[in-house]
């Protein structure tokens, strides 16, 4: 098989790139290892199933005034959004044997925005513009090889069959650490490039998120915003996660390191998180209608051992240039490759659009 461009990864970056190639009339194939699109974007209902009116187990927010690439894409797709709820007092928890304290809320500047229906709406909107024949799910790329004027991407398809796909260019829309750890390059990457990819932290990889769903947002009745910070844990930062349609929820980032989370077990963390919410917001929080938990450190397509050992936020200009023999043949386009906003939704859009422009220039030059 042959295509002009192979896109590896069907998250926000990969789908943004695919949309631009499709609009430009460029032949492409998108290969996604998961059986769903979205990557680190995952919006689900109370049962954990993907939903266009869901709770965001991955990223939740974007900031239009700061993140222009994401803002332009949201506007272009016609997706409505709303401000993160922040009205009311916030709660701070300092010590186990000290009662939580209540403080006046602080207006966020700039305001955090959420897509109506969840961030997954942008994934379904992008996918709806693409031909289904150009997308292959359950397809794990294992190797890439330079073959004269082409690059051959070797992969295992959804049926477990090893196959290959040749293209003029391969665009990798996935974390550099995952790429370096899971794909074999022939010729091999030089040591400096491989180290650069391993050293780049992966957005979301160290984190776990917990959601408690309720029949109504009772904390608002008490004049609370749903925002809390804690030095006790297990949740260190908590927010109101109520949807635009009124499905009430609180969510928190789990502050327990990944290895300790694995040792403690999911059930223990969920139980401790519910108990903590009751301590912060009152006894009504002790009886959620459902809970959701996502530990991104256990996702092999998001996190590697490097992410467990060394987390952190991706940083601009942290990636070495693609080495000579691979230059202009492969391009990095995940959020971590963003030049201005790496590690954010906008970084994924920005990196994808930059890579697409580079490919279009190269294709124009060769035609």
Automatic annotation (TrEMBL):
InterPro entries, per the entry: Amino_oxidase (IPR002937), FAD/NAD-bd_sf (IPR036188), Flavin_MAO (IPR050703)
SUPFAM superfamilies recorded: FAD-linked reductases, C-terminal domain, FAD/NAD(P)-binding domain
Superkingdom classification of source: Bacteria
Any Pfam family matching the protein: Amino_oxidase
Domain (Amine oxidase): residue spans on this chain: 12-95, 108-359
Family named by the database record: Belongs to the flavin monoamine oxidase family.
Listed PANTHER family: AMINE OXIDASE (PTHR43563), AMINE OXIDASE [FLAVIN-CONTAINING] B (PTHR43563:SF1)
Record's protein name: FAD-dependent oxidoreductase
Lineage of producing organism: Bacteria, Pseudomonadati, Pseudomonadota, Betaproteobacteria, Rhodocyclales
């Amino acid at each position: 098989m042959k295509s002009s461009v192979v896109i590896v990864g069907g998250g926000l970056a990969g789908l943004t790139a695919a949309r631009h190639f499709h609009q430009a009339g460029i032949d492409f194939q998108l290969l996604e290892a998961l059986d769903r699109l979205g990557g680190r974007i995952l919006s689900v209902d109370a049962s954990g199933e993907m939903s266009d009116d869901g709770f965001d187990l991955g990223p939740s927010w974007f900031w239009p005034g700061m993140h222009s690439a994401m803002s332009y894409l949201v506007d272009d797709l016609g997706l409505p959004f709303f401000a993160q709820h922040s009205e009311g007092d916030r709660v701070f928890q300092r010590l186990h044997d000290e009662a939580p304290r209540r403080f006046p809320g602080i207006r966020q500047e700039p305001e955090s925005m959420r897509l109506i229906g969840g961030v997954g709406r942008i994934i379904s909107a992008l996918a709806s513009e693409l031909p289904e024949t150009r997308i292959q799910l359950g397809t794990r790329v294992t190797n890439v090889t330079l073959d004269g004027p082409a690059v051959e991407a070797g992969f295992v398809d959804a049926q477990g069959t090893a196959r290959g796909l040749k293209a003029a260019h391969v665009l990798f829309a996935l974390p550099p650490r995952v790429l370096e750890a899971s794909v074999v390059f022939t010729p091999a990457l030089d040591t400096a490039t491989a180290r650069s990819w391993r050293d780049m932290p992966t957005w979301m990889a160290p984190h776990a998120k917990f959601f408690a769903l309720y029949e109504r947002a009772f904390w608002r009745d008490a004049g609370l915003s749903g925002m809390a910070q804690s030095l006790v844990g297990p949740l260190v930062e908590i927010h109101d996660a109520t949807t635009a349609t009124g499905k009430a929820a609180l969510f928190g980032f789990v502050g327990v390191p990944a290895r300790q989370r694995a040792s403690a077990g999911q059930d223990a963390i969920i139980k401790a998180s519910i108990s903590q919410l009751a301590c912060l917001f009152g006894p009504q929080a002790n009886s959620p209608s459902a809970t959701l938990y996502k530990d991104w450190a256990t996702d092999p397509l998001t996190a590697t051992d490097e992410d467990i050992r060394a987390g952190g936020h991706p940083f601009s200009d942290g990636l070495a240039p693609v080495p000579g023999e691979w230059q202009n043949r492969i391009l990095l386009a995940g959020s971590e490759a963003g030049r201005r906003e790496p590690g954010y939704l906008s970084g994924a859009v920005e990196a994808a659009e930059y890579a697409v422009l580079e490919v279009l220039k190269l294709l124009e030059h060769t035609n």
